[in-house]
Amino acid sequence: MHNTDQAEHTQHTGYATHTERVQTWLDASTLHIRFNNPARHNALSVDMWEAVPPLLAQARDDDRVRLVVFSGAGEKAFVSGADISQFEDMRAAREAVTRYEAMAEDALTGIADFPKPTLACIRGYCIGGGVNVAIACDIRIASDDAVFAIPAARLGLGYRYSAMKNLVDLVGPGVAKDLFFTARRIDAAEAKALGLISRVGTAAGLDALLAEYTGAMADNAPLTIAAAKAITREILKPPTELDMALCTSLIRGCFESADYTEGRTAFMHKRKPVFKGI
């Protein structure tokens, strides 16, 4: 979709940001959030971090949205890290560091806590903060020309607990320490083998691969998916913090929904179900 088409689509769907460096558009039941800083390989500037939480807050209550997809503009990068041109201004003083980290934390926590499915569609460089965005999502797909790295150890940066936990939860402590301690770059094939991403497609086939997911989320029962996402979060908590009552309530809600009736009826009549999330 061309940028002009995206802009027109945004006007009609109500999704807009205060910065041109984040593009948004609604395509059927998928909200696309695209990082648009191609001159710096989509490095994340302050305004880009700030744009994410309001969009997710709006999408959370929008019944049209069943999936949020994050991507990067152009063919060279998903996100190449932080926009270091802002470091001197933003990170020179302790207060500025705190503010910058808080903005990143708000955005990443917002993605991780979002109740609907999220997907990172990765092409090209996925470095540092780009990896953080990707691992905050539920699903990660990538083109075979994607490159991944977490270069914090080469920059002297401290990494937040939440970002490290997301990485360890996803790939395990051994792989997380390997990638973090060495700061080495890996290609898409190794990223898939390590569990960092789910699937790899060719650059030309990435749109088709993404369409599999947008189609599945449009077709499948949203209450079932939301329950699975919430219960997975409970599974990852320490046993003392597990909310089993919540898990039981979510499952009961699925069985008592109109969508469950629709699913059974469609199965018996050998037709495609039409789920409404109720």
Can you offer a commentary on this structure?
With 278 residues, the chain is an alpha/beta fold. It has two domains: 3-218, 2-enoyl-CoA Hydratase, Chain A, domain 1; 221-268. 50% of the residues lie in helices and 15% in strands. The chain is built from 13 helices and ten strands. The chain has helices at residues 3-13, 46-60, 87-90, 94-113, 129-136, 152-155, 161-171, 173-182, 188-193, 206-219, 222-235, 244-255, 258-268; strands spanning 22-27, 30-35, 67-72, 77-79, 118-122, 125-127, 139-143, 147-149, 186-187, 199-201. Strands 1-2-3-5-7-10 form a six-stranded mixed sheet, with helices on both faces. Strands 4-6-8-9 form a four-stranded mixed sheet. Helix 2 links the parallel strand 2 (30-35) and strand 3. Helix 7 (161-171) packs across helix 8. The longest helix is centred in the middle third of the chain and has 20 residues, at 94-113. The radius of gyration is 19 Å and the shape is globular. The protein starts with a helix and ends in a 10-residue tail after the last helix. Mean pLDDT is 90; it is low at 7-11.
